[in-house]
Specification:
With 147 residues, this protein is of the alpha+beta class. Helices cover 30% and strands 10% of the residues. It folds into two domains: 39 residues; 88 residues, High-Potential Iron-Sulfur Protein, Chain A.
Length: 147
């Protein structure tokens, strides 16, 4: 067989190139998804660093003080606090549990209705806490450390 570049072979080569473009893009999507999956927090981890894209959207200190907010629920000394209570399982914390995964969170932070839809971390707690049964199982292990 001769390798002749004629019109018919040129169209075949062009069609093969066009068909392969979406396949290459899908490969990039999977590669990006694998890269970002390692950056996500484990479902039970408390965030240490505030993601850059929400720094300006964090809850204000004045509002946090009014609601006796603490960044780590287990350090709360408020009389309303009970073991297992945390922002992550509060009905005002705007994350969702879908297909066994937590969605609507950015690096362990999500919006809180009680704090004017500003971001708070999932391990925090405030006196407006109301237990959300669908999310409670995730954070019920949180307990105060006894000294």
């Amino acid at each position: 067989m001769k390798n002749i570049l004629n019109r018919r072979n040129l169209f075949k080569l062009g069609a093969a190139a066009i068909v392969s473009i979406p396949v290459l893009k899908i490969g990039n999507v999977f590669a990006e998804a694998a890269a970002t999956a390692t950056e996500e927090l484990a479902w039970d981890a408390c965030p240490i660093v505030v993601p850059e894209k929400i720094v300006k959207k964090l809850a204000k200190d004045k509002a946090k003080t009014r609601l006796a907010f603490v960044a780590n629920a287990t350090t709360s000394t408020h009389k309303k606090y009970k073991d297992g209570a945390a922002c992550g399982n509060c009905k005002f914390y705007k994350s969702k549990v879908e297909d066994g995964k937590i969605t609507r969170e950015v690096g362990g932070y999500a919006k809180c209705t009680m704090l004017a839809n500003k971001y708070v971390n999932r391990c925090g707690w405030c006196k407006s806490y109301k237990k959300a049964d669908d999310k409670y199982a995730i954070y019920k292990y949180l307990k105060k450390e006894e000294a």
